[in-house]
Amino acid sequence: MVLQKDAATLDGRVAVVTGGGSGIGRGIAETFAEFGAQVVIWEKDPATAHSAAAAVGGLACVVDVRDPDQVDAALTGTVAQVGLPTVLVNNAGGVFASALLETAPKGWDTLIRSNLTHVLLCTQRVAQALVQRGVPGSIINIASIEGTRAAPGYAAYAASKAGVINFTKTAALELAPHGIRVNCLAPDLTLTEGIERVGSPEMLANARYMIPMGRPGHVEEMAGAALFLAGDLSSYLTGQTLHVDGGTHAAGGWYHHPGSGDYILGPPRPNLES
Question: Would the pTM count as exceeding 0.85?
Fold first, then answer.
């Protein structure tokens, strides 16, 4: 079989992007629309939901994806207005710092609900609709490199993202007989508008030492990986986590020496002599 050019398109497909009002989610929504998808933004903030939907010629659904009743209503509305989604991107989520010894149960529960529970709810509801109709699909969960390594000061966040990665594997196996693929995208430092607004110059400068490719990622690069996972180019790929991180996951603790540029095992220390 020879691949056709249209294998890279999403023509005729309905794609739901949760948390698609900003950041990586919005970049994915814009890319999907550019490649032919009818995009639906599931977002709890009305302003960003409608802004993003207008930018891509898509549909906005104002929904808190942590609430099962709201997810059901959003799916019903999506199907009624544009059709059954065959692509789902579980991108919504949040993060805050909380040291292990100071993490309160309420804070823990908040991040688990925001980053993991909604992945179950949205995946389950969309998959149920696909299975009922005998339609294949692709589900993409947005995790993080912090789901595969220790994250001091962010125990709840890291645990929730690790949960997303393992959930992806199990969901992939259960849904494979139905032709539904489930994969995961795990970014590292990515230049979203939020990072550019609050990221310190030191953090951004240190990316050249911490990331093998010497720079943070761009939203379009995450969107390109999501496009691959959504379409037919990845038709035999399921249960996998794609690390779009400039090589950080592969590095496993190796960093660029600030002076020589050679790799060293240990943290970057700009005051080292070359």
Answer: yes
